[in-house]
Amino acid sequence: MRIGSGFDVHAFGPGDFVMLGGIRVAHSRGVLAHSDGDVVLHALCDALLGAAGLGDIGQHFSDTDPRWRGADSSVFVTQVLALLRDRRLAVANVDVTVLAQAPKIATHRDAMRRRIAQLLEVAAERVNIKATTTEGLGFLGRAEGIAAQAVVLLTEP
Ligand code: MG
Fold this sequence. Notes:
This protein is of the alpha+beta class and 157 residues long. It has a single domain (2-155), classed as CATH 3.30.1330.50. The protein contains five helices and seven strands; from the N terminus they run ββββαααβαβαβ. The strands form two sheets. The protein has a five-stranded mixed sheet. Helix 4 links the parallel strand 5 (90-99) and strand 6 (127-132). The longest helix is centred in the N-terminal third of the chain and has 14 residues, at 39-52. Magnesium ion binds at residues 8, 10, 39, 42.
């Protein structure tokens, strides 16, 4: 078995929605990002790559590469999954924490779980989504942005 962790942050900017776990979540702000700025999928990719010993998302999908401008981050997950498959690594489970004062994700949690499970081609029971505020503290507490962390366990043959 191999464990990996990932963490990502994006600052809020102009807009009226954020992408979280491949789900469009209405919000009073958007995020500043080269891709679609989905912190959940970016943290997830880093956790998957970390567990596989394959570096980080920036090495695979550079934020200066025009191919990834405005990219749907689900593409990153799909490509990372292919790298794992090449190495005969399988996803045992995924645990994600979203850190934000807003938006609230409670009503989107199940959709995010299903979407991530679909992207990883595993049962939804293998994916868990948690959320927390930072009790008003720091840049997240001031609602300057949104963060996510992910932990994954991979199994080897
Ligand atoms: Mg990111």
